[in-house]
Specification:
five-stranded mixed β-sheet, Purple Acid Phosphatase, chain A, domain 2, six-stranded mixed β-sheet, Serine/threonine protein phosphatase 1, Ap4A_hydrolase, binds manganese (II) ion
Length: 235
């Protein structure tokens, strides 16, 4: 793996594998987990596997992604941290028939999620809710919003510049775009995020963006962080 200087740091002897928006790309996620397992076997370290959220919608197999992650331990030997994305909130809101969530869910790729579970899109929230696997619902409900390690702060979309990390609003953490992406402020941490797709992984002094639109033909990107260097894997 080619390593380049990283904007942040990870404690000695540790490594982080951070994966951007998955959006139903179950096969590529399994491929990427295999590459991570091989890298970890070749170069043992205390490893943390972080998924940056947006497991469902848009792509072909959201049900397969959730089945794979709910089963646990996707890369043996890694501590796994799977963060919440805005699409997880949309799905949970749609299942209980919350009108705004339902409208956004259907407009932003929720039909692919329904299809992957074998649900009739015309059946409506009550029918979907009754048939949705309990284990998948509990897993979605339990996703943490943030994770911190070394000089890095991991969250789905980004942070509101100028607001302390422990006082960030959940809507910013899972939804913020330009006011974070365009900021050149030193946040005190390097924010590792997904949510806003780019053609390739974005590495700036204050952030690393890992959403490379896997669902629409881009790679599923993984940043490999250790010491003060950064490598990339693609599924
Ligand atoms: Mn997304």
């Amino acid at each position: 793996m080619k390593l380049q200087p990283a904007p942040g740091w990870v404690p000695a002897g540790e490594r982080v594998y951070a994966i951007g928006d998955i959006h139903g790309c179950a096969e590529r996620l399994r491929t990427l987990h295999g590459l991570i397992a091989a890298d970890l076997a070749a170069r043992p370290a205390k490893a943390t596997l972080i998924h940056l959220g947006d497991y469902v919608d848009k792509g072909p197999d959201p049900a397969g992604v959730l089945a794979h992650l709910v089963a646990g331990d996707p890369v043996p030997g890694c501590l796994t941290v799977s963060l919440a994305g805005n699409h997880e909130a949309l799905l949970l809101g749609a299942l209980v028939g919350e009108p705004l969530a339902l409208a956004d869910f259907l407009a932003w790729g929720g039909r692919e999620t329904l299809a992957s579970y074998g649900f009739d899109p015309e059946a409506g929230p009550a029918a979907w809710d009754a048939a949705f696997p309990d284990a998948h619902r509990r897993w979605l409900e339990q996703r943490p919003m943030t994770y911190r390690l070394g000089g890095y702060f991991f969250t789905h979309a980004g942070i509101r510049p100028g607001v302390p990390l422990d006082r960030q609003d959940a809507r910013d953490l899972t939804g913020i775009r330009q006011s974070f992406l365009a900021s050149e402020a030193d946040h005190g941490v390097v924010v590792v995020h997904g949510h806003t797709a780019a053609l390739s992984v974005t590495v700036r002094a204050n952030r690393i963006g890992l959403d490379t639109a896997a669902w629409s033909g881009g790679p599923l990107s993984c940043a490999v962080l250790e010491g003060e260097v950064l490598g990339l894997l693609e599924g």
